Amino acid sequence: MDITREKKKLRQERFLINQSISPQTVQDASKRIAELVTALPAFMEARSIFCYVSMGYEINTQMILEAALQRGKILSVPKCLGHGLMEARIIHRTEELERGFFGLKEPPLESERLDSPELCIMPCVAYTENAIRLGHGGGYYDRYLAAHPGMKTVMLAGSWQFCVCIPYDDNDRKADCVITERTMIGR
């Protein structure tokens, strides 16, 4: 089996697990993770942050987005431009977000692009103890991170998203740090 098929099979298995977690469990984990993220030196020191807008079973980022805005940081969120391509677009309020690509909440088309965020906070479907990420399968973050080397990366996950092994290749980007409600991996 090739790596693409292995990832697809694993992604389907992990989606089922992630979707079986109670909303209360996700909410409780999200609150704890937001506390940990906003206390990170990388978060506190960053002037500009690129953070995903959560959906479904993902760790909820609303508290992180609000904290960044309240602390006067330049906050950007993903704007999908087409298959596998996204940009960091600046928002000033979370109320600016509207339904966009794949039904995700995104900034409006006319929002300003942020070329070089200092910190990227990203989601995952699953993660390993070595901060290997299984994403949703579009390669958006892998392409974005490849085009922005040196940016600090933090991946958010519930402890239930841990996976012993995730197949990966040279195109896959590891996170500098993984934060769950129970542990922190990396720096």
Task: Write up this protein.
With 187 residues, this protein is α/β, with parallel strands linked by helices. The protein has five helices and eleven strands; from the N terminus they run αααβαβββββββαβββ. α2 (23-39) packs parallel to α4 (62-70). The radius of gyration is 15 Å and the shape is globular.
Output the helix-strand order: HHHEHEEEEEEEHEEE
The total of beta strands comes to: 11
Counting DSSP H or I runs of 4 or more residues, the number of helices is 5
How much helicity do the residues have? Answer: 25-40%
Oligomer description: single chain
Structural class: alpha/beta
- Which stretches are poorly predicted, pLDDT < 50 over at least 5 residues? none
Strand order of the largest sheet: 3-2-1-6-9-10-11
From the alpha-carbon coordinates, what is the Rg to the nearest angstrom? 15 Å
- Taking the alpha carbons of the first and last residues, their distance comes to 34 Å
3D shape: globular
Largest sheet: 7 strands, mixed
Give the amount of beta strand, in percent. 15-25%
Report the mean per-residue pLDDT as an integer. 94
